[in-house]
Amino acid sequence: MPMHKDTYFSWRACLTGLFLSLLVIVADQFSVNIIRGSFLTIDHMPAGGIFIFFLLVLFINPILYKINKSLQFSYQELILIYTMLLVSCSISTMGLCSQLCPIIAMPYYYATPENRWAQIIQPHLKPWLVPHGEKTIQYFFEGLPKGMQVPWLAWILPLISWFILILSLYVMMICINVILRKQWVDREKLIYPLTRLPLEMIQTDGKSILSPFFKNKLMWLGFAIPFLISSWNGVHHYFHFIPQIQLANDIEIFQKTIFFYFRISFPIIGFTYLINQEVALGLWVFNLLFTLIQGGFNITGISSTENVGIYGIRDPIFAHLGTGAFFAYVLLGLWIARGHLKDVFIKAFSRSSAKKNLIDDSQEMISYKSAVWCLIISSLIALLWLVTSGMGVMTAITFMIFGFIFWIGLTKIISESGIPTIIPPSIASSQTISSLGGANIGDQGLTSLGMTYPYSSDMRTFPMSAVSQGLKLSSNDKAKKRFMFWAIILVIAVTFIAANFITLKLAYTYGGANLNKWFFIEGAKRPSVFIAQQINAPSVINQLGWGCRIIGAVIMGALILVRYNFLWWPLHPIGFAVGGVSWIGQLWFSIFLVWLIKWVMLKYGGNDLYRKGTPFFLGLVLGQYSAACIWFLIDVIAGGTGNTVFWI
Fold it and tell me: CA-to-CA distance for 492 and 52, rounded, in angstroms?
């Protein structure tokens, strides 16, 4: 069985975590850009990270044990490795690095006389934010002529400049996680469904190095279902006479103005089985409610002409309602935690001689004093960076407030709902423009807001959620965790360097325009297109947006109060906060199916039947993620492209 130590300090585990993270980075960059297969690091539970951890626990650790018992990775080492994998996956592609270089180069390469980006965007880009040289940018999208070398020097200054901001934001996220961990884990007892699978894989019964999870026949039955279906569809990609198994369909409703989706997602089915019934009910009921309201608006002509971009909920009314709900969810959560937060800040600012009877932080990743001061310092660094990049002070503060409302809110929602594919209802830059008015922000500030997209727009994954899961896993024992902080900082730095190196190497070798179309063309254009629209037609403070945010906050507050005061209330309020998001619209049917199955199981079989069924549903998750990774390897060997066996 994996040994238990009294500390997470382990250079061996740290180096293993770095090595495995680099393997996943290389595999995913190759998969999404060259093979064009499944995304391996795209969600809050990354398929690539889970699969390589699965191999480590099932094969590598038992082999080490057979060679010499002292060579096996301990329980704490496995958690450290897994946390490093999660954090690395959260920024290696979708979370940051596949978006950063294309977005900062896009205003130059795709500038035309028609879009006038050269006149309205380029003059407002600070020289230390972007690469320079016409050929440097041209070859990034078109590929280098034969014999030329990658112009690394042109990218060093902008990438170092961006890393200062990125690291400060990520340190803020880590510190907030440390400050809130005890409240969320010990007091509110959030269930963190996404941590259940890795925990089951490393927990042993004392009789064997392998977890009983791997000896459970129901788990392997669950594993086989998505694995075989994905493999069947993978074979279909090569032999078209084999019929494909369709797992998704849709119908058009409300005079063909809305698509109504029916999708079977095995990871969603697996994780939804672990969550509370009121959470599942709230997610699918509020999604159907939002769909009905949106359809009614469409056929009656009720709409807003405001442009809030494509991320989150595209309809401005629902985007602002959801944003207001997030504000209420986060602020009321902090109010509920006020006693804990008071203890934390007293601990942070008390003299060492007066700390004996204060809140215990010995089990935290860093002390509360370090967390509070690092949070303050990193916040000031991020604010200074944003102002230096061109934002006004009020714009930068507003952006950071919206950003952390979304980051904190989504992290907690993931910890309660277990949905690995989920995003907030809007993004910080769009809400900042709507709240303050583009005309008040100015062209320079608008351009700077456009450059925030790499780390704050596509929030299908981000480090705060990854660190939160790691802290939950480490909460199950009393070992000292101080080393985890530095291991996480190290993996962030190594991932940033490695992923950007690979992105640049692939772009200059093959031409970025020939790689992943979303990262290098369609997605990379969105910030410049959005900001150009705002500059060409400056907006004023959107009164409807403020009204919708207030209404959303009031409704969310009322739902939270009802839930706390009436135990019979069946709908969890987080359904209102994210029910209008497109991904819930895609996944509501899978959530509904599991809610119904679980209701029947609990009614007629009780908790015993429910517990016995858990390995089967976790097997569904593991089987789907394993299929995605194994078919990536098959496609590499066979030379196939475009074989996406897993998306959501």
Answer: 18
Evaluate whether 268 touches 648 at the Cβ level (below 8 Å). yes
Q: How far apart are CA 202 and CA 220, in angstroms?
A: 16
**Helix, strand, coil % over all residues of the chain, rounded to 5:** 70, 0, 25
User: What pLDDT was estimated at residue 356?
Assistant: 61
Q: Which helix (H) or strand (E) holds 430?
A: helix 428-436
pLDDT of res. 379: 97
Of 171, 192, 202, 226, the residue nearest 47 (C-alpha): 226
CB–CB of 212/204 below 8 Å?
yes
Which of these, 172, 170, 202, 186, lies nearest to 96 by C-alpha position? 170
Does residue 1 lie in a domain region?
no
List average pLDDT for each run of 10 residues in the chain, which is 648 residues long: 68 96 96 93 94 97 92 93 97 94 96 94 95 94 94 97 98 97 95 96 85 95 98 95 93 88 96 96 96 93 89 92 98 96 92 69 92 97 97 97 97 95 94 95 96 92 95 86 94 98 97 95 94 93 95 97 92 95 94 97 94 97 97 94 89
Please count the structural domains in the chain. 1
Is the separation of the CB atoms in 49 and 89 below 8 Å?
yes
Predicted confidence at residue 303, as pLDDT, reads 87
CB atoms within 10 A of CB 278: 17
Residue 562's domain comprises 11-638
Provide the pLDDT for residue 255.
87
Q: Residue 175 domain-assigned?
A: yes
Spatial contact of 441 and 395, defined as CB atoms under 8 Å apart: yes
Q: Is residue 3 domain-resident?
A: no
Give the C-alpha separation, 132 to 127, whole Å.
8
- How many Cβ atoms sit within 10 Å of the Cβ of residue 129? 18
Report DSSP letters for 366-419, one per residue.
S-HHHHHHHHHHHHHHHHHHHHHHT--HHHHHHHHHHHHHHHHHHHHHHHHH--
The tokens describing 364, both together, are: 């935290």
* 327 assigned to some structural domain: yes
pLDDT of residue 647: 85
